[in-house]
Amino acid sequence: MSNVFNFSAGPAMIPSEVLAQAQAEFTNWQDQHTSVMEVSHRGKLFMELASQSVQDFRKLYRIPDNYQILFLQGGARGQFAAIPMNLLKENGKALYLTSGHWSATAAKEARLFGEIDEINILEQNDELKVGKLDFSDIAEQYDYVHYCPNETISGVEIFDVPNVGDAVLVADMSSNILSREIDISKFGLIYAGAQKNLGPAGITLVIVREDLIGHARKSTPTIWNYEVQKNADSMINTPPTFAWYLCALVFKYLLSIGGLPEVQKRNQAKAELLYQYLDQSDFYRNPVAKQNRSLMNVTFTTGNDELNAKFVAEATAAGLHALKGHKVLGGMRASIYNAMPIQGVEALICFMKKFAEENR
């Protein structure tokens, strides 16, 4: 195992087993003596890979038959625009539940396409926590309700699904996709950039219920039209084939280790270990209420900007990379996505103890 652990919030770690397989197949995929990047996306072999990846992803999440899975481009930001273009009626409106930077950014983009109401569900006192999640009394007046169940920057995760009655619930799961089991049937649409838990940057997954497809406004570009992409098997243009291939390998790897029950077990163990240390430390502080602490992004600070900078520099030198917090929040952030082994968390805690002893 490498002596370097990458805590980047994205692009993030990819399972070492997947990287090893990709390396072995890099110049000779499927005995073709070419790379997967060099074959036609409409050729038999790649079409088989694409079809199998959809089946494997569907199996991981137990996705019902009345949902389509699209492999798109443009990242989550692209979906900030695509969602209102496809789901927001000409004279309709949507509700955005904001709990941090990314949900607020999604709401800002959606306002370019129609009437958007915004409710801040994040309470900021001594600690960050999510408030009311029952919107069943107002949700059905909206074409859809959007939220972000895991805010990467602040390390706030929403584990309970908002109650929106019979309204369409849309979730940006870019930073916690495939990290734990969820009931897909509670959502109308789920989207996620790949670069946290699925594979490399460049591909975006959309899980969308069938009845929501086919209602895009006339001005919607074909690249963002869900119906067009569904009918073209997500290949209205040349897809990012290497990113798709790596996602397909990740899906197979996750199935091989026991699927999401095992993934969730591992993620909970890693997060609990790090939060337990933070809770007993009088040197570091995590600002998030226990019920909303992210399993994916653990934020912490010494309370001193100069000391934080020293921590990041010395951690990097010790092989613990990308621990600097986002510029919006500062401090430190350890992103411990699916591919981070528990040994990485143990190494981080060992360093944190040493740093605290030396800098009191």
UniProtKB/TrEMBL annotation:
Intracellular or extracellular location(s): Cytoplasm
Keyword Transferase: yes
Residue list for modification N6-(pyridoxal phosphate)lysine: 196
Pfam families in the record: Aminotran_5 (PF00266)
Domain of life per record: Bacteria
Residues spanning the signal sequence: none
The protein's Enzyme Commission number: 2.6.1.52
Coiled-coil residue spans: none
Predominant cellular place of this UniProt entry's protein: cytoplasm
GO process annotations (BP): L-serine biosynthetic process; pyridoxine biosynthetic process
Family: Belongs to the class-V pyridoxal-phosphate-dependent aminotransferase family. SerC subfamily.
HAMAP family on file: SerC_aminotrans_5
Function: Catalyzes the reversible conversion of 3-phosphohydroxypyruvate to phosphoserine and of 3-hydroxy-2-oxo-4-phosphonooxybutanoate to phosphohydroxythreonine.
The protein's name in its UniProt record: Phosphoserine aminotransferase
Organism: Pasteurella dagmatis ATCC 43325
Gene: serC
